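Q: Convert this sequence to structure tokens.
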Amino acid sequence: MPVGALILLLGIPGLNALGRLYGWFAGLLLGSNADPALTAQVHELEDARSRIIAAADAERRRIERDLHDGAQQRLVALALNLRMAEQRVESGDPGAAELVRQAGEEAQHALRELRDLARGIHPAILTNRGLPAALEDLASRATVPVDVVAKPGERLPDPVEAAAYFVVSECLANIGKHAEATSATVAVRTVDERLFVEVSDDGTGGASLDGGSGMQGLLDRVGALGGRLTVDSPPGDGTRVLAEIPLTERAAADTGAARRESRRVLPLEEAERIQGERKRLLTFRLGSLGIVAAVLVTIWALTDPGLPWIAWPLLGLGLVGGLDAWRVFSMPPLSEADLEGATDRGDELARVTRRRTLRHHIGAHVILNVFIVGVWVASNGTYFWPAWVMLGSAVAIAIKALPRPARAHAHLLGDHT
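A:
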């Protein structure tokens, strides 16, 4: 009796502690891990949203100021001239005709300013005649000679045309203000379900995407359509601005994937820090799986060791732990050291990403096949059916290793990540 009471007194707190331990393990295994690329993307979207709201407020203030200082003053002067002309006509003053003429000029000036204001909001020529005519209009109004060397041959979606128009407009305005250029070229082409907008000049160079609110606004506008904006502007060698805007959902997905990949290249110190944190969390997860396995083995040993059921949960835990560990070690964060010495960072990034992905797939298939063989051994099978699984894995790896575009691999293997 005293022994039973002692077990009861010790068992209740022990069960509570065991329940809390299981709850902690469950949270550790099922909880989400911070993805640095996803976190950076969320922060970028939040920053872009704040910039868009601030830009919208600034644009409303600009429109109000332009209306107050420009067209409104013209219309006030027009009303005064017409009232004075009316009074002079009633008194027979011959100067009334001159006042009417001045009123007509004020009306023309007010109309011109309203048109300029409307063009800054959304140009009518873009809506009525399309992007080619709008590009020619921008070139004719630029402060430097502009040669439009390529234009799209058909109408494009309205948001795409508007983004391309404002990219060219902002670039030509910057060329006139800062570049000290003698000429500029504009090329707008449709290639593989994407619209490429290129504006280049022979000015002083040295431009960057963070050089002002105008370029940042273009970056947000193009990014809102799933596109990319890059600037190549070596000092003393002119500036080349290239915008890539997808025309279809599939192109937008491909472009978005490329943008995400480009943001994953981290400084070496930050990549090592993130990888160290991933290894630390992996240690906790593997430790949790080990404790679960130990508990199961203890239960199996205390009940009936003659039954082989223990093999099945141990195989499952081994599969989960192996895949988790392989993911951490085979796919570390990309760092600048991975691209060191590359002449073309984009091509080198694509090659490194493809090699890492192929290595990850090979390792995952190996772990999966080891698990399948373990299942066959635990089931005391005679016919070696895992050979068919191994053959399928070999075919899948061979297809993945073929020198074909990534989209073809994704289509064949169903890999849409």
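The first helix runs from residue 2 to 30.
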